[in-house]
Design goal:
Blueprint (H helix, E strand, L loop, with lengths): L1 H22 L18 E9 L11 E2 L4 E2 L10 E10 L5 E10 L7 E6 L4 E2 L4 E10 L14 E8 L2
Antiparallel strand pairs: 1-4, 2-3, 4-8, 5-7, 5-9, 6-8
Length: 161
């Protein structure tokens, strides 16, 4: 009988401990969802010709979100046209200038000079910068060249950092 009492006491102790443990135990659940709301949108928003030498023809500059084109017609040495290409960060992520590469065609006229200036190294959301592309008929030219055209191509690479 003594063994039965001991067994009953041990069982009651275990049940009491189990009830006590469950009274002080809490299960916590954690859940969540993530959403990307940043927008990347660095784009060309305008191109216009400025400082056009008298008699020269800047043509009709064209642009899309990712490209700008122009065709300058120069008459005499010293003539020039400057194209202002406006770039805007319309997104919500800062843009950092990674690289600017401009190449002139190898067989183009030596009398035509291209100069590029004025692009910002960083663009915060909503900010704009202007790339100036100046085309000039070299004022040191003394004869009409046999090759009368030259093409420039460029890549402006903004990245997020």
């Amino acid at each position: 009988m003594r063994n039965i009492k001991c067994i009953i006491i041990i069982v009651l102790l275990i049940l009491t401990m189990a009830v006590g443990y469950s009274a002080f135990a809490t299960q916590l659940n954690v859940s969540g969802t993530a959403e990307i709301i940043g927008e990347w949108n660095v784009r060309i928003i305008n191109i216009e010709a400025k400082n056009v030498s008298e008699g020269c023809n800047p043509g009709e500059p064209q642009y899309t979100n990712t490209s700008a084109t122009f065709e300058a017609k120069l008459i005499k040495p010293g003539d020039s046209i400057t194209y202002l290409i406006t770039i805007e960060n319309s997104g919500t992520i800062d843009a950092t200038l990674d690289d600017v590469i401009f190449k002139e065609e190898e067989n183009g006229s030596e009398a035509i000079k291209f100069t590029t200036t004025g692009i910002a190294p960083t663009l915060e959301p909503g900010a704009q910068t202007t790339l100036n592309v100046k085309i000039e008929y070299d004022s040191k030219t003394t004869e009409v060249p046999s090759i009368k055209t030259k093409t420039i191509t460029g890549i402006i690479n903004y990245v997020q950092k």
